[in-house]
Write a structure and sequence with these properties.
The chain is mainly α and about 120 residues long. It has 2 domains: about 45 residues; about 60 residues, no CATH class. The chain contains 5 helices and no strands.
Length: about 120
């Protein structure tokens, strides 16, 4: 310790750097293990019959899409039984639409309509 306080040698500094590296590796391992346990707990809860959790997110929509979404909600409500109408929301519509689009993207990749439409939009700019 005296060598360290009095300037030490390059070998001392290398040993300290190596010790520091080991400490950080162990911290990362511990964090990783906690994350795995948390994921396992979440999976168990979902399997136990709990609903999927929701997250609030913000995305910008064009005025046209925003209006179309309202119109779609109204049209879907006219197709629903009276007791189910209150369960139709714009969030549910968007959630289901995105599930369908993402499934299609997973299956078709760059040939999927979402990619084709995005490319058209990008090249328009």
């Amino acid at each position: 310790m005296d060598d360290l306080l009095n300037g030490g040698t390059e070998a001392d500094y290398n040993e300290i750097a190596e010790l520091n590296k080991l400490i950080h590796q162990e911290i990362l391992k511990a964090k990783s293990a906690r994350a795995k346990n948390s994921t396992a707990d979440t999976t168990k809860k979902k399997k136990a019959g709990r609903k999927d959790s929701k997250r609030k997110t913000t995305h910008y929509l064009s005025e046209e899409i925003f209006a179309d979404l309202d119109e779609a909600r109204e049209k879907i409500n006219t197709l629903m039984q009276k007791k189910l109408k209150s369960r139709v929301s714009k969030s549910k519509i968007v959630d289901h639409a995105l599930k369908m689009i993402l499934k299609d993207f997973e299956e078709k990749g760059k040939e999927s309509p979402i990619i084709q439409e995005m490319l058209k939009d990008i090249f328009k700019e």
